[in-house]
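User: Here's a chain of 231 residues. Predict its fold as tokens.
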Amino acid sequence: MTKRKAVRAKPARRAADAGLSLTERAYTQLEEMIVRLELPPGSAVSESALALRLGIGRTPIREALQRLARERLVNILPRRGIIVSEINIKSQLRLLEVRREVERLVAKSAARRATPEEREGFVGLALRFEKCARTNDDVGFMRVDREFHDLLVLTAHNEFAVSAMSLMHSLSRRFWYIHYKEAADMPLTAKLHADIARGIAAGSEAAAGKAMDKLIDTVIKFTRDTVTTGL
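Assistant: Prediction complete.
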């Protein structure tokens, strides 16, 4: 990721944050900074430095960091400060075992319960995923993926599955972003997301569940390939 590309991304990020509470805005920006390695694994961060960097007060920053700690993206250590969590391949594979079952359930629930307006939203997301695949737009894909996740959990109407899914999503996004250039096929991953979105839009639980299984199969292969390629 070049410095120039990161600078271009900032206006889009601010636009996407419009209307969010300060805590939500702090969480959204910090999560993206961690996922995109602006805050790399093992790095130390502080509330005051992050507040200055983002132009947000320390209380929203603290609340956002507490949520990130629950999602295992940071570790809050007494008397040692706040450390961005390291990445562990074996833990990532165990996470994917759970992710397959939870996300299949969420996708099928969304296909069954989505409103007409939500189905239109999934159609739009599918088109945007396909555009990212055609243009090989990694940053665009990451942002559409976040919107897809948010709509998916809203549409599923199962707070227990949603809570479990939310705990896994950012860890998966960060792992993918770190390694995808060496071991993943981003256009394929974007197309598989589009297939899930289209299955939900069509109200087909079978299509949505099958597409989700294909995505997780691809992600598991990618995760194992990061080991065999020596990453």
